[in-house]
Amino acid sequence: MNKRTKRTDDGMAILDVITEDTPEMRALISEEAENLRIAKNIYKLRTQAGLSQMELARRIGTTQSVISRLEDADYEGHSLAMLQRIATALHRRIEIRWVSLRRKSALA
Question: Per-residue pLDDT for the chain (108 aa), expressed as one digit of tens each?
């Protein structure tokens, strides 16, 4: 018998298969995914605005190295105050949502 495996591009589902599926691991992966999302958003918005890291840093009163750090997916020190300064400099606003920790598939 030829058993077919369902393919997916869902990163969380793939990580479930290759890591321990514990609440601690799930929380760690979720936190890292959020850090990556924030870093990518800062980079995307900055480059769409046509700004260098130095130019954005000047607008918010910090250094280029701080912007570089904020755009690094491994950085864990994002503060709401700094994100608001960046948003203002890029003519944006931040929205925060509170969502359930339960996976969508568990709700079905």
Answer: 445 566 777 776 776 677 777 778 877 878 888 899 999 999 999 999 999 999 999 999 999 999 999 999 889 888 999 999 999 999 999 998 888 877 665 444
Whole-angstrom CA distances from 74 to 16, 21, 23, 44, 64 are 21, 22, 21, 17, 17
**Domains contained in the chain, CATH given:** 11-96 (1.10.260.40)
In degrees, rounded to 5, the angle at the alpha carbon of residue 98 between the alpha carbons of residues 59 and 106 is 135
| Distance between CA atoms of residues 64 and 57, nearest Å | 5
Cα angle vertex 82, ends 78, 87, to 5°?
110
Full-model pTM:
0.71
Nearest to 42 by CA among 20, 66, 12, 11: 66
The C-alpha atoms of residue 48 and residue 52 are separated, in whole angstroms, by 10
